[in-house]
Amino acid sequence: MDLKQIFANNEKWIQEKLEVDKDYFNNLSKGQSPEVLYIGCSDSRVTAEELMGVNPGDVFVHRNIANMVPNTDLNVQSVLNFAIRHLEVKHAVVCGHYYCGGVKAAMQSADMGILNPWLRSIRDVYRLHQGELDSITDEEQRYKRLVELNVQEQCINVIKTAAVQKAVKERGLQVHGWVFDVKTGKLIDLKIDFESILEDIMKIYKIS
User: Among 86, 153, 161, 180, whose Cα sits 20 to 30 Å from the Cα of 77?
Assistant: First the structure.
């Protein structure tokens, strides 16, 4: 990749935007009011704005390996808190993707060095759903199912937080679990039944 081309692309993009709206960048500089928080994977093949067909300013984005929401990670927790309490987004989305390298690595018995504690959280998801996953004989299908279950568990981690619980109660914030299929380009709503899943665990995690 020629890095000079990136700056040339940037100049072209600026001109295209200004041709449509001469105040485009001036308006962007005035602030943001996105309605969606998107927590996705850092995978270079999965670009949040492009796959959703949205523009700068429409979505508040956080990305990390395997779209994780650990309660001990100050980065993702700060993003979550800012998006919910200050930007007052209406939707919080966790979006995983099939053929995720992080999830694949977590399925293997290998020492991944500094990644070990991060991948351990995905392995915990496997442990929670081991019966279902071990019953899937096709390795690729088991891999894809773990991607989906990881999204579900990260959504639950989102709902465990005080800011989210308060926003759900006071202004109807909605939490969603999605998966992007790299092979087809399709964005899939997992339609997770959070009310059913959380009925029991909220006895433990309810804060507000």
Answer: 180
